[in-house]
Amino acid sequence: MAVVGAAGVAVALVVQADEYFWPVVAIVGAGVALLALALALAASTLLPWSLVALAAAYALHLGDGPVDAWSPVYAGAFLAVAEGAYWSLELRGRAQDVDRLTERRAVRIVAIALGGVAVGGLALAATAIDLGSGVWLDIAGVAGAIVALTLLALVARPRAKG
Fold first, then answer.
1. Distances (CA, A) of 111 to 83, 104, 116, 148
2. What does pLDDT average to in each consecutive run of 10 residues of the chain (162 residues)?
3. pLDDT at 5
4. What 8-state DSSP symbol labels residue 94?
5. Which of 6, 127, 135, 137 has its CA 20 to 30 A from that of 100?
6. What is the pLDDT of residue 29?
7. What is the Cα Rg of the chain in Å?
8. What angle do CA 142, 70, 106 make, to 5 degrees?
9. Closest by alpha carbon to 76, among 39, 35, 43, 123?
């Protein structure tokens, strides 16, 4: 499923590529092939590099152009591909409880992808708001980034079992 999702992203990028058509084709082809190889060999260390290749092709596709209105959709697709790929590696060798967990995990992956699209869309919409400029706005932005990173660090922190 992850390879199909990555191939879908690759096709979308190739169809939209104009100026850098052949480099985009080469990069997405390498990304999809690397993902298929990583899944075939169960090499989790290769999975991020396939996504890096797809993201690089997307960045090349964007070039110096305006902000892409489809960027939240690409973000959701990247999340779904990554989650699906890691899930397929986790399932190797496990036959117990797979049926029961499959539906729950699939719903979770879809929810994560749609959440990524929603958050990306919100961020994209927020960039369209003209708030002016100034030192105080810059300070508020830095403070907001610090708060966001602090909350992320607190949420991602491993919990002690006990």
1. 11, 10, 8, 21
2. 92 89 94 95 92 94 83 91 89 63 79 86 79 81 89 80 61
3. 92
4. -
5. 6
6. 96
7. 19
8. 95
9. 123
Please tell me the distance from the alpha carbon of residue 21 to that of residue 39, in angstroms, as a whole number: 27
| Residue type, position 111, single letter | A
Report the distance separating Cα 92 and Cα 90, nearest Å: 6
Q: In sequence order, which residues have a C-beta less than 8 Å from that of residue 28 and are 6 or more positions away?
A: 9, 10, 13, 14, 53, 54, 57
Q: What is the identity of the amino acid at 22?
A: W
Check: pTM over 0.85? Answer yes or no. Answer: no
Can you list the alpha helix ranges (DSSP code H) found in the chain?
A: 2-16, 21-41, 47-62, 71-90, 98-127, 135-156
Q: Rounded to whole angstroms, how far apart are CA atoms 4 and 43?
A: 18
**For 37, what's the count of Cα atoms within 13 Å in the CB-facing half-sphere?**
12
The per-residue pLDDT for 140 is: 87
Residue type at 80 in one-letter notation: A
Q: In this structure, how many other beta carbons lie within 10 angstroms of the beta carbon of residue 70?
A: 13
**Alpha helix stretches (DSSP H) within 65-97:** 71-90
